[in-house]
Amino acid sequence: MELIRSPSELLFKAAKLGNFDFLAELINSYPDLIMEYDGKNRTIIHFAVKHRHACIFNIIHEIGPIKDLIATYEDSQGNNILHLAAMLPPPDRLEIVSGAALQMQQDVMVVEKNVQPDFRKKKNKNGKTPEELFSKKHKQLLRQGELWMKSTANSCSIVSALITTVVFAAAFSVPGGNDDNGKPNYFRSIAFLVFVLSDGAALLFSTVSLLMFLSILTSRYAEQDFRRSLPCKLMIGLGSLFFSIMTMMIAFSFTFVIACHYGFTWVPFLISIFAIVPIVLFAILQFPLLFDTYYSTYFSRILFEPIRHMLYD
To answer: How far apart are alpha carbons 175 and 186 in whole angstroms?
Structure first.
């Protein structure tokens, strides 16, 4: 047990790998271990921040006033906790989030969660503040996030523009034709009403989607834009694009309901089944990205906040 009671590579290796259960058992039995530091003056809390292990970092919320003391520790390079948060995490921790833009968002959140006013302007031995270090270390990731976001927005905006064009033209090509007075022949039918409403909704959603993606393309792509602005625009754009495809397919299906009003009643039913395919396909292909963006934006901010007692259960 002497190996565990005294500082050792075992303790810091567990913190580096994120072995929370092992560390929780040790700290429950030997609370002083949380104050131990390695040869570079880093505690397990510093390792948790550097390697983005939120569950280990959250231990700091249960150790009382000692957390303020640990927060003042600086490693051999003069880096405090905020400097470590500003560094790029290891590749294996970075890749748990899909897409460079969301990776950038995660790191911005980590820095914000660990910001303490007294340390914001603190410089390390290289003369860098945490904010300056963050900008330097994340320059390449920022560029990758910009390219990823632009590529996604550009592709989706093309689809949105096509849908907008199609449904706008469909609004002036009334299915079933018009009578001598220019009034639609099926003006009072439910199928015609569904067609009009769905076509109008498709135009609305596709236009909103197009505007969101254009807003992304013209964004300045500053570091803070990845925190909330860009992900929210992407979510609104993808959601609107999904609803525009769905309502467009509904309008398309009811066009056949009107056209085949007399005879071939099985045709609209078959077309409606076919129309479901692109809706389901879009959901399968794009909903994972939409979910990841939503989770990263609205739930990742609680990663570095305790949601239950981590120790002494």
So the answer is: 8
